[in-house]
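Field: sequence (string)
Field: structure_tokens (string)

Example rows 1 and 2, in order.
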Amino acid sequence: MTDAAIEAAQSGHEDHHDVKPVRKTAMWVFLGSEFVFFGAMISTFLLYRNTTNGGPGSEIFDIPFTSASSFVLLMSSLTMVLAHNAFENKDMRQTRVWLIATAFLGATFLAGQIFEFTEFIHKGLTLPTSPFGSSFYMLTGFHGIHVAVGVMLLTAMAILSLSGRLYDDRGLNVELVGLYWHFVDIIWIVIFTVVYLLQA
């Protein structure tokens, strides 16, 4: 093999490894921008939390139900950690099991949120009811969209694991999805505390 060919091969190998830190940095930048966006939405909710225009307010919140739903979402962080640990140990089967478990818990949280929204609508709290209703649905709904995206990513990871494609070029994806999922959980802790507990 010529010196030029060797250098090209080494360069390609180095570029292959350089991609991972770049992707991880990009994820952190994305999460940072999302944190700022959620911060703005939470601030908007706090600004309008008492502006109900005579409609229902925080008194319709079912704290026990939302607490249980929140616990389910927080448990998904544990299963995500287990998925990542299994991935690091190259245990594809356990990685898949815990990815599916995490996706299931996320989907369960979403089902609870949809049920909660339905109950609130029946009690008269809709998006156009008041600034309180608008800011509440925008904040919690936007978070719900993030959970839904996470569930789809987790499901995709589980499917990729069937063919062993989580390794090689896609190897960091489990870590990236894990970072995203933990971010979603942390944001929910803040939302649950500010929107539900402090309003009770």
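Row 2 begins here:
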Amino acid sequence: MGFGLTTLLGLSLLAMVIGRERIVRSGTAQPGDWVKRLVCLSAWISLFYAMRKLNLCSGPRYLAGYYPLLVMGLLLSPVHSGLVRRNWWRSWAFFAYGLAGLLLVISPARPLWPAGWFLQQYGSGLQSSRLGSRLLNAYTTKGSRANVFAPIVAALPADASVLGFYANDYPESSLWKPFGARRILHVKRSDSPDAIRQRGIKYLLLTTDRLQEPWPEWLQRMDARELKMVKLKIQGHLPPLAWHLVELKPHGLNQNHPNPELKHSYEP
């Protein structure tokens, strides 16, 4: 949620607890509306259900839609209505908005300032410092992420209308371009060579960081030959990875008509 918003929510919760104790002591507490309380509780129940389904993986990204619903309970407190009218509260809220806007402007993935021109002019000087080197690395890597597999796409054979993709969570969207030119079928490490061929996959793109056997032995077991190897830097904190484009030698299977029962693909 960010530093600013988290701080505001923490202050709201603290003020509500302290203010509620004062209201109880003064004897002016009003009976609560159980319908409103159940509505607020339902948001938490749905959140826990979603977390159970996701196994708590990639939570901040997929659970962001629940954040406005989870704070409904704070808005029901009369203490909170007085808190948001204080000048220091409003000042901190504007600071949080400004901080979020600044992060949006300097985002390495989609900068809203002339980052490319700045790096061209001052990139050599930034490499002399550790912070500058990290800055240059982040903007360079994120800036080319949308077309990171362009060297692979340029090396694809003309008949590569189906491409097997064996990787973890690396971005495959640049392999779709030009859109509609090919299908990307995901391949698992446990898939046998025959099962891959039966899905109509003739060409396969993979990185060896997930293989549990030497690269020559994998090629021999798959009965494949390497067409091209390219080192690509996809994530700023990782060194360049070697990506291999291989061709699976046909074993008498009909490559133009894959078995639809074996296809579990992602088609853009």
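free_text_note (row 2): Residues 253-268 have pLDDT under 50 and may be disordered.
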